[in-house]
Amino acid sequence: MAGHVIAGLSVIEARAAGRPLPEADPDWREAAGEDPVATWRAARARVMTLLGPEALARRIQLALGLEITLSEWLERYPLELLVHTWDLAQATGQVVVLEPDLVRAALETAKEFAPQGREAGMLGPERAVADDADDQTRLLAVFGRSVGG
């Protein structure tokens, strides 16, 4: 999981620099390096140096021919980190309550993005949730995660 999230930074870096995207399915362990925290910090630092006004205004191609600015795409990025924060907690036997304001915003983004993601083969089916499910459960269900079962 750490390698996947770190590799995501290499995609942001390539888009910010106007370079071709890295390979689609890298070796995730290799992407994480010997010290995933240090690898993350170094990748993040490289990205931050590139995110000036010109890079943020650059138009990028997404799946299904959708074209948006890098800035618009990055507005969706917290969604990736929130869902994978939950994934990491699950993988390590922990319970995590994600920040409710971030979850609410991410849920709205997810509802817009998910149909396109499914059509592009990036997402599996949404899970059913109870009518009274909280926003975190709803967000995770959009991405096929099952909470408490």
Structure description:
- It is a single chain.
- The protein has 149 residues and is mainly alpha-helical.
- The protein has two domains: 1-70, no CATH class; 76-149, no CATH class.
- Helix content is 60%, strand content 4%.
- The chain contains eight helices and two strands.
- It has helices at 2-17, 28-32, 36-50, 53-57, 70-75, 77-91, 100-119, 135-142; strands at residues 59-61, 67-69.
- The chain has a two-stranded antiparallel sheet with strand order 1-2.
- β1 (59-61) and β2 (67-69) form a beta hairpin.
- The model has no long low-confidence stretch (mean pLDDT 89).
In a few lines, what is going on in this structure?
The protein is mostly helical and 149 residues long.
List the helices and strands and how they pair.
Blueprint: H1 2-17, H2 28-32, H3 36-50, H4 53-57, E1 59-61, E2 67-69, H5 70-75, H6 77-91, H7 100-119, H8 135-142
Antiparallel strand pairs: 1-2
Helix pairs in contact: 1-3, 7-8
> In order across it, which strands form the biggest sheet?
1-2
Q: Overall 3D geometry?
A: globular
State the end-to-end distance. 21 Å
Q: Classify the secondary structure makeup into a structural class.
A: mainly alpha
What's the main sheet like? 2 strands, antiparallel
Mean pLDDT: 89
Helicity, as a percent range: 55-70%
Structural Rg: 16 Å
